[in-house]
Write a structure and sequence with these properties.
Length: 445
């Protein structure tokens, strides 16, 4: 038996563990349904919770439904129809390539066929338990039976809202507010007073929720596709004719994490989630909120055996020349820049037109001397981050051209990249297969 199966079985048995009285009450409820249908042995279509309920997440609601089904089957007189699993039936039908006229519709009808349909009503939640009633409506519609309250343990932490539930509810609110919706541009989540790795993780959960909406049966049947894009740099700060997402992550003084999400068109807010406490441990990210330079260094995919940056001093004294030793695997193609605390950056390697000089030699090299560049005198106090990406293979052509466009040349200085451009480049560069990063603070006092 798998770990999940054991969890579900244990959840189902919680109804019995409350005592024989509850078990007898459930049996008596089944007797009432049997009297309605005129049968002792029953075929039940367990529909579960209403799709719009906001007490439990989708995963929790599904687990509760499976636990109830297990408990009903333990009575020994119940056969279950596959009503709640009609999507799986549709997938199976498609995989079998059934082409007989009406066969698909007949399969779906059979999935809901039973002596009674079982709905879960009056859902409530208290810490790690969910309570509700089982309401049976006979197939003929002329008889109804409602159980005593049922209580089942759910997998959660007290007082914490499930992340996917928040995302799904916000997307549902958006669809209600903009039923003609055809496209959503996703902007990066921001973090209060800094940057956090959990911002990117929340963006991925939002993408999944929007993707689920784009593949919904309703959209497919109405031939109304939903296009999902990552917003272009600079688009999120300006008013846009497209619907854009604006999320915020924060961690309070007690170490609790929170998120809020808005969907906007231009200056109008179409839908929002409100401020929700979330369990970041499920995201697998570091929730710490850091200043920009610390965030970049903390989230870098570093491997000192492949690439390392070693400043000649820390801090450098004003008036001294910059000297950073670059060591690592010979043949590594270097792409380096200097990042400022305000989120901007300037490319330093390679120099446009001299790309072949930015390949690491055995034994390492010192920047700027060993790259044929002039001395850089540190004549003012500042704190920057020197950072390099290294690859053995060439970057994708479009990404490489984008980097070189911002690079210095023999006749031109490097362009200053905006914070939005820097964050977008970091995301794309870190996704390049085989890339390695190295960072080193450059402090001048």
């Amino acid at each position: 038996m798998s770990g999940l199966s054991r969890c579900l079985l244990a959840a189902g048995l919680l109804i019995v563990s409350a005592g024989a009285a509850r078990a007898d009450a459930l049996s008596a409820w089944l007797d009432t349904i049997a009297a309605c249908s005129g049968k002792r042995d029953l075929s039940l279509a367990v529909v579960g919770f209403d799709a719009g309920q906001q007490v439990l997440s989708r995963t929790q609601a599904d687990e509760v439904r499976l636990a109830i089904e297990s408990r009903l089957q333990s009575e020994g007189r119940v056969r279950l129809a596959a009503s709640a699993d009609v999507v799986r039936i549709k997938t199976l039908r498609d995989s079998l390539n059934l082409q007989k006229p009406g066969e698909a519709e007949a399969q779906i009808r059979r999935a809901f066929d039973g002596d009674a349909s079982i709905f879960f009503t009056e859902p409530a939640r208290q810490e790690d338990k969910a309570s509700f009633r089982l309401q049976a409506i006979a197939k003929s519609g002329d008889c109804k039976a409602t159980s005593e309250p049922v209580e089942i343990a759910i997998r959660t932490k007290p007082g914490v809202v499930d992340i996917d539930q928040v995302m799904s509810r916000a997307v549902e609110n958006l669809v209600r507010a903009a039923p003609e919706l055809k496209r959503v541009d996703i902007c990066p989540f921001s973090a209060a007073s800094g940057y956090s790795a959990c911002s990117a993780a929340l963006g991925e959960r939002l993408l999944l929720a929007l993707d689920a909406e784009s593949r919904s049966d309703d959209r497919v049947l109405r031939a109304q596709p939903l296009e999902i894009r990552k917003a272009a740099p600079g688009q999120c700060a300006a008013s846009s004719a497209e619907v854009t997402t604006h999320g915020r992550f924060e961690q309070d003084r007690n170490g609790q994490s929170w998120m809020a999400l808005e969907f906007r068109r231009g200056d109008a807010v179409l839908a929002l989630s409100g401020r929700n406490r979330i369990p970041v441990e499920g995201l697998g990210c570091d929730p710490a909120v850091r200043p920009f330079l610390e965030h970049v260094a903390a989230t870098a995919g570093s491997d000192r055996a492949r690439l390392a940056l070693l400043p000649a001093a820390s801090p450098f004294a004003k008036g001294r020349r910059l000297d950073v030793r670059i060591e690592g695997k010979a043949g590594t193609k270097l792409y380096c820049w200097v990042l400022d605390s305000d989120g901007t950056a300037s490319v330093v390697l390679p120099v446009r037109g001299e790309e072949s000089k930015s390949v690491l030699r055995a034994g390492g090299q010192s920047y700027p001397y060993d790259f044929g560049l002039t001395d850089i005198v540190l004549d003012a106090a500042f704190e920057n981050l020197f950072a390099c990406f290294g690859t053995e293979a060439d970057w994708p052509a479009a990404l490489r051209q984008r980097w070189l466009k911002a690079a210095p040349s023999a006749s031109d200085d490097a362009a200053t990249l905006s914070p939005d451009e820097v964050l977008d480049l970091i995301e794309k560069l870190r996704a390049v297969p085989g890339v390695v990063e190295a960072t080193a603070p450059i402090v001048v006092r």
